[in-house]
Task: inverse folding
């Protein structure tokens, strides 16, 4: 994996070179694969040098052409804007002060729970776990929630579109109409409570 080299000197005499690198979590490659399976295009924006960035991207499965290295905080935000101008809905994941502008610019910002206070305050969602799989879980839970909302709207609209005309025309009594309305509310609430069964598959 690419490393960042630091020169160590004393009195203008080179003593040695120290190579450092951020460790990649074992779950990162799986998380990127899961995001791709959800139809997402994954980009990497980092302040690291190009060699290090490409090495990390390769290890987790991010395409080389979607890696942008040595970018400043404002450049990250500008990259988010560029993707938005191209018609994309952008989600940004970050954990540091340098990520805050991009987190604020994106439609949805995810702050890793182990990140800085600035990133957590700026983001829309603060994730408790410090790995990318928690982002996948959040996206899947969001999709499940939207699905439930659509189901609830369908059932509520169905009850009302059927019950109101029948009651207005006198085909059903007000008591039955009231009971049907109550049943509509109960079915919507019960369907929403099914979200408690949601379990992450990653």
Result:
């Amino acid at each position: 994996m690419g490393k960042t080299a630091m020169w160590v000197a004393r009195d203008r005499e080179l003593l040695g070179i120290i190579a450092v690198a951020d460790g990649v979590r074992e779950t990162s490659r799986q998380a990127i694969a899961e995001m791709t399976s959800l139809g997402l295009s994954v980009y990497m924006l980092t302040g690291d040098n190009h060699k290090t960035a490409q090495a990390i991207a390769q290890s987790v499965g991010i395409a080389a052409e979607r890696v942008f290295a040595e970018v400043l905080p404002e450049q990250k935000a500008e990259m988010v804007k560029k993707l938005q101008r191209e018609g994309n809905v952008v989600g940004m994941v970050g954990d540091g002060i340098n990520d805050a502008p991009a987190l604020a610019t994106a439609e949805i910002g995810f702050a890793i729970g182990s990140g800085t206070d600035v990133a957590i305050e700026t983001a829309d969602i603060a994730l408790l776990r410090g790995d990318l799989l928690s982002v996948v879980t959040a996206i899947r839970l969001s999709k499940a929630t939207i699905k439930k909302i659509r189901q609830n709207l369908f059932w509520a609209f169905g009850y009302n579109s059927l019950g109101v005309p029948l009651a207005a025309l006198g085909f059903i009594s007000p008591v039955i109409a009231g009971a049907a309305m109550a049943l509509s509310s109960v079915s919507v609430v019960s369907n929403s409570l099914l979200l408690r069964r949601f379990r992450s598959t990653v």
About this structure: Residues 137-197 form one domain. The mean pLDDT is 88.
